[in-house]
Amino acid sequence: MLTENKTSPFIMPRMCTLMFLLYVAYGAVLPIMSMYMNSVLHFSGKQTGFINAAMSISAFVTPTIGALIVDRFISAERLFVICQAIAAIAMYFIRYATDFHDVLFLYILYYAAFGPTLGLSNAIAFHHLPDSKSKFGFIRVWGTIAWIVVGVAFSYLWLRDGSGHYRPERLPDCFTLASLTSAFLAIYVLTMPRRPLHTGSGQRGISLSALRVFWNKRMLLVAIGFFIISAVGKYYYVGASIYLKAIDVQEEHIMPLMAIGQIPEVIGLLILSGMIKKFGCKTVLFLGLLTELWRCGGLMLGGNLWLVSSAVFCHGFSYSLFVTTTFVFMENYTTSETRSSAHQLFSMLNAGFASLLGSIMAGQCLDWFNFDGIINFRYFWAVPFCMTLVYFTIMLIFFKPTEKENYAR
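Above: the chain's sequence. Below: its structure in token form.
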């Protein structure tokens, strides 16, 4: 294995490349998976929801890996290689699977392997980068750029032939792209140096003391909201591509249209620190909720492509302003001893249980609001809109943080 230290002039571009490729593999499939299952495989809404719920598997697997395996028995780099290799194989077979149970099994296997690499990539970057805290934001933004690039490039360069005609039979090639990217990633990370393994017996994993973080009623209120918004977000991933096709957006335009929702995420993350310092966590959280309301409300009203596009555009703002600020607000209640456990617990509750619940609910709603083969998306989007509106109202009445909590000092 190659030797490389933190002062290597190549470490920054290598980490940027790692993050870019990781999110190429991630973004090649996720935005259009529901449409593929609905239009190509002809799965029901319930089946589509169950398969999308497989994403939540990683939220349960990752804390276990982080607590018991990484850097104790195997380095993060080597485990990343193994996981990406398994993900590449699983995604290759998904490309050719047509039976619901086969796709479900392979998708669960895929996310059980691929999901932990999202966290492992962060650990690898923090280890190898000098002054990692100040430089990680620049590294991570390449993941968002990759999501946008793969959506636009795959749709406009591959789903069209040399004459500019749409080639729908090439849509399943997104799985091949994801598989090949994961295989290349496994080889790429093999060339990186491994960290020394730790043999200490200190506490690892989720401790019961982390539960005390949520005893404060204001933190509990924010945590409940994070759970709700995480569940609401699954309606977007389950229903958006199917909805866009239903309102006559051509399939080759769906991935690029959904990709524009990532642009505000970059903007939001860049201005978030300044906004919290000037306006406080409460104001930023409410702005995040308002963008979430518009995302659901704009899709619910529908009909006009500009209205729908503005709703999709709010996707990134919703994440950066509400979700990221939630983690900042939580810092008021964590200590160096509870921080890691609290974040793992938060991840398991929201990316795990909330994602699982939201995916199943969204899939079920696709069936409930399917009348004679036509889905009433106004009813579909009304469900997450009402969930967000109820929580927004509760926050408006009861959420009153102290000045210290509000400005996360």
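The longest helix spans residues 263-301.
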